[in-house]
Design a protein that fits this description.
Structural class: alpha/beta
Oligomer: single chain
Number of strands: 14
Number of helices: 9
Order of helices and strands: EHEHEEEHEHEHEEEEHEHHEEH
Largest sheet: 5 strands, parallel
Radius of gyration: 19 Å
Helix content: 40-55%
């Protein structure tokens, strides 16, 4: 029999923890709960889960600090739960490594659907590309989720890596905005796609790309984004000379 998916549910409100934990159990999940940031980190270390449901407002700290701490050592999927629902709050949460963001009050059925969507994406990501591949002066370790430019490792957030991976594994091809949102965020994403543009901007800065004349990530207006084809990257690299050497 296959092992049940283990979820660490970090929430301090009993009125939410108890009924939703029962709902998760009814849908086949094993649930471990934590009511504080300290408990969350302790229980994560003692019994690593398959996914973390993480409330932002905890009695002893901010859930975003818990997210940052987990991301320093783990790629476990994280879904944030919060009463704060502005677009900037969502963007910040996704930037520090969350995979999805749900605003309270929430529908239990919706959150369970989002859990399954995140787990499907997590399970399928490793099959999409070879373990390591190179495009121009970029080397992308898909399995290790690491990126090097001209021999220097870049520090990318989870979403930045996923976005780069989706674009760079199909160099020269335009990837529509809707497809990027579906594959990097969620097929059920509601609202503005501005978060995509924000993450593209952050990714460009880390790649050293000039938005006015990008080398790697090109905007195709009204459609989406395109990563440069290998032949487009050869000439600039050759002209760069010593600057292309770490």
């Amino acid at each position: 029999m296959a092992a049940r998916t283990r979820i660490l549910f970090v929430e301090d409100e009993p009125a939410i923890v108890e009924p939703f934990s029962r709902a998760l159990a009814r849908h086949g999940f094993d649930v471990v709960t934590a009511g504080t940031a300290a408990q969350a980190l302790e229980r994560f270390e003692s019994s690593p889960p398959d996914l973390v449901l993480l409330d932002l407002a905890l009695p002893d700290g901010d859930g975003r600090d818990v997210c940052r701490a987990l991301r320093r050592s783990s790629g476990v999927p994280i879904i944030m739960l919060t009463a704060r629902g502005t677009e900037m709050d969502r963007v910040v949460g996704l930037e520090i490594g969350a995979d999805d963001y749900v605003v309270k009050p929430f529908s239990g059925a919706e959150v369970i659907a989002r859990i399954r969507a995140v787990l499907r994406r997590q399970g399928g990501a490793a099959d999409a590309s070879p373990a390591t591949y190179e495009i121009g002066d970029l080397r992308i370790g898909a399995a290790a989720r690491r990126v090097w430019r001209a021999g220097e490792e870049l520090e990318l957030s989870r979403k930045e890596f996923d976005l780069l991976h989706e674009l760079a594994r199909r160099p020269g091809h335009v990837v529509p905005r809707e497809e990027l949102m579906a594959r990097v965020w969620d097929r059920n994403w509601f609202g503005s796609t501005k978060t995509l543009d924000v993450h593209v901007g952050w990714l460009r800065r880390k790649l050293g790309d000039n938005p006015a004349a990008p080398r790697y990530v090109h905007t195709v207006r009204g459609v989406g984004y395109r990563f440069a084809a290998p032949e487009e990257l050869e000439a600039p690299s050759a002209r760069a000379g010593p600057e292309a050497t770490p």
